[in-house]
């Protein structure tokens, strides 16, 4: 399991990549929140040897292709991320033939997941918290789809998305290939109370050890 930083904030992304995040994913709402230029954002991160997604949204097939071509011009290694739809599945199949990787997002049930897998999508973004808002167990969805993928030998990678709590984060690690994590949850791992208290204790004891050593030195 690997982490993708789910953000368009440059400071958060750079910090996350430094501590081991395997890639960057964002959506139009995050780009808007951070007031970043979509294509400039892709140019800034496409050559960092990470998994980078670029969400493409269009009303018709031709516009979808035009937008994707702009992304591909930046780098053929960028994963084209598409909202689940008939047009997106047709596009995913077309890109598979061209060797361009795609991700289908806004996946909320097994039927959608299987349609996307059959269309040749390389990644599925499975939504946890948003599913739970309508009374569906988002974590159980990931478990069930991961069992299908494993038993059938599919190569599609599962990304647990819409992660909002520590419990969701920890549970998703057991079944997802990637987790799209907001920086807030990554940062929380550094502030576990027992880690903090243990580090303080070790720091105090190390100071005493060093002080004792200096006192005994000839």
Could you walk me through the main structural features you see in this protein, from its secondary elements to its overall organization?
One of its GO terms (biological process) is carbohydrate metabolic process. InterPro entries: Aldolase_TIM (IPR013785), TAL/FSA (IPR001585). Keywords: Schiff base. It is a single chain. The chain has 218 residues and is an alpha/beta fold. The chain folds into 2 domains: 2-181, Aldolase class I (TIM Barrel); 193-218. 54% of the residues lie in helices and 18% in strands. The chain contains 11 helices and 8 strands. It has helices spanning 10-18, 28-34, 38-45, 61-74, 86-98, 110-119, 129-132, 138-152, 166-172, 183-188, 193-216; strands at residues 2-6, 23-25, 51-56, 79-83, 102-107, 123-127, 157-161, 178-181. Strands 1-2-3-4-5-6-7-8 form an 8-stranded parallel barrel, surrounded by 6 helices. 36% of the residues are buried. The model has no long low-confidence stretch (mean pLDDT 93).
């Amino acid at each position: 399991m690997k982490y993708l930083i789910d953000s368009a904030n440059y400071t958060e992304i750079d910090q996350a990549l430094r501590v081991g995040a395997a890639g960057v994913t964002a959506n139009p709402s995050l780009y808007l929140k951070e007031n970043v230029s979509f294509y400039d954002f892709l140019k800034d991160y496409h050559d960092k040897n990470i998994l980078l997604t670029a969400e493409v949204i269009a009303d018709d097939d031709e516009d979808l292709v035009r937008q994707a071509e702009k992304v591909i011009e930046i780098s053929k290694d960028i994963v084209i991320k598409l909202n689940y739809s008939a047009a997106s599945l047709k596009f995913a199949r077309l890109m598979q033939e061209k060797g361009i990787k795609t991700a289908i997002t806004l996946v909320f049930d097994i039927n959608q997941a299987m349609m996307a897998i059959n269309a040749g999508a390389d990644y599925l973004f499975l939504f946890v918290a948003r599913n739970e808002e309508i009374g569906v167990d988002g974590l159980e969805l990931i478990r069930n789809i991961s069992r299908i993928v494993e038993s059938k030998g599919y190569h599609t990678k599962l990304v647990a998305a819409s992660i909002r709590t520590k419990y969701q984060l920890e549970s998703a690690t057991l079944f997802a290939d990637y987790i799209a994590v907001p920086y807030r949850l990554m940062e929380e791992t550094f502030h576990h109370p027992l880690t903090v208290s243990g580090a303080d204790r070790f720091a105090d004891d190390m100071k005493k050890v060093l002080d004792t050593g200096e006192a005994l030195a000839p």
